[in-house]
Amino acid sequence: MSAPIVSMRISMLLSLIAGVIMWLAFPPVSFGPYAAVAAALLIVAQYRAPLRRALLSGLIAGGAFFGLLISWMQVIGFDAWILLAGYCAAWIALLGIGTALVTRLPGWPVWVASLWVLQEALRGSIPFGGFPWGRLAFAQPDTSYGKLAVLLGQAGVTFALVLAGASVVAAILAYRAGDRLRFASWAVFAAIITVIPGLIPLQIEGDDVGGAPTAIVAVVQGGTPQTGMGGMDVRRDVLDNHVRETTELGASIDAGTVPQPDFVLWPENSADIDPYGDVEAAASITAAAQAVGAPIIVGAVVDVPGNPNGVWNTGIVWEPVTGPGERYIKMHPVPFGEYIPFRRQLEGIISRLDRIPRDFIPGDRAGLLNVGGIPVGDVICFEVAYDDVVAGIINGGARIVTVQTNNATYAGTAQPMQQLFIERMRAIETGRTVAVAATSGISAIIR
After folding, report:
1. Dihedrals φ, ψ of 390, to 5°?
2. How many CA atoms are closer than 13 Å to the CA of 154, on its beta-carbon side?
3. Residues annotated as part of the active site
4. Cα distance between residue 88 and residue 327, in whole Å
5. Which of 247, 250, 288, 368 has a CA between 20 and 30 Å from the CA of residue 131?
6. What are the structural domain ranges in the chain?
7. Under 8 Å CB-to-CB from 174, ≥6 apart: which residues?
């Protein structure tokens, strides 16, 4: 077949339906296999289509998908939601052009799946570090496809999902053309892609290289006085909440009702007051560490020496006796959330940028921390979605992954659960226990 297989009107309708079904694969609905169904519908809409039609098809599908997926961005502002969803949809539009072109090639399902992986890689890299949210793999922790991350990483999961959907379309087209051999080949291939991943064994609680699990980790969620855009406005209260909860944990340890942890994990922004410069904050954290008799990985915002306009988002290993030790500085600050590109040009236009008076400066090394002799890999919030950040700590020898996050801004939305799905996929991929500490929302131990 050398022509599109559906009309313009049907193509646009299928694109809209595909975008909605793709969203249904993610939290809050969370039916992962829908991702393959959505990919198949989008391929039908774009198969050998004129390039303008394919571009519009991708824009409609991407707009529907990301508009629904990141609707929680409306907490920041309607304009922020529209701009980010539009940016992401533009990549799906470009993918549409690519799909229309490669479906003219032999073995086109493989080419389409490859384009999906490329699109996700580029969208998650440029500009300003990209936005990898919404990768098809991130909806798959409860599906057989998710297990492929053990062998092929997140990109391999997306590739398999799209290849399965594309293979079904190829089988249907072969059947319509009367080519029974090609129909059988693609149908069997689609079945294999769906069934085989379910046979992959998952690594459990450190039984991969490195031996059995040996660490006890306590995760503390102190809570915030309020949520939404003002969730962290009362910084001292947030710190006091985490000190209080940790002190109560120490009392339970002393009473023998809770085992002695090797270390304690606090969330991102648990100490929004720079503990290097605030004596009272430092004393409170030290008292908490002494109460539990273990180091605490503290999420702290600290001043950058010599840069009055810059701050670091850090995870600091705080010892009970010696205080602050090793630290990790977040490598991927969030554009327009933690730093403002083109600040000088935009401040006069967007008044709420004054809520971010200083830019977060990125760190330059992976979050490898020695915490009480345990090699810990620390990542902060959205960074868990970046392959390079996670690969850096695993390749560096981390035996446990810690995620410090602050989702108080998005309380009551699907964002915390979407992030948890990413963290669960990282646990599958790395074979490591993933400990998640959140100021509010969802804290977890994933193993």
Report:
1. -70, -40
2. 28
3. 268, 330, 381
4. 33
5. 368
6. 8-199, 217-446
7. 180, 182, 183, 185, 186
Question: What would the two tokens of residue 225 be?
Answer: 């006085």
Q: Are 258 and 246 in contact (CB under 8 A)?
A: no
Q: Which tokens go with 101?
A: 């072109």
List, for residues 277-325, the tens digit of each pLDDT value.
Answer: 999 999 999 999 999 999 999 999 999 999 988 999 999 999 999 999 9
Residue with tokens 């990109």, as numbered in its chain: 155
The per-residue pLDDT for 351 is 60
* Peptide bond between residue 275 and the one before it cis (omega within 30 degrees of 0): no
The domain over range 217-446 is classified in CATH as 3.40.50.1820: no
Asked if residue 393 lies in contact with residue 425, where contact means CB atoms within 8 angstroms, the answer is no
What is residue 77's three-state secondary structure? coil
Long-range CB contact pairs, 225-231, < 8 A, 24+: 226/408, 227/408, 227/409, 227/411, 227/412, 227/440, 228/75, 228/408, 228/409, 228/411, 229/75, 229/76, 229/355, 229/409, 231/406, 231/408, 231/409, 231/411, 231/439, 231/440
Which tens digits make up the pLDDT trace of 9-55? 999 999 999 999 999 999 999 999 999 999 999 999 999 999 999 99
Beta bridge partners of 301: 313
C-alpha 405, offset from chain centre: 11
The answer on pLDDT for 202 being more than 90 is: no
Mean pLDDT of the chain: 92
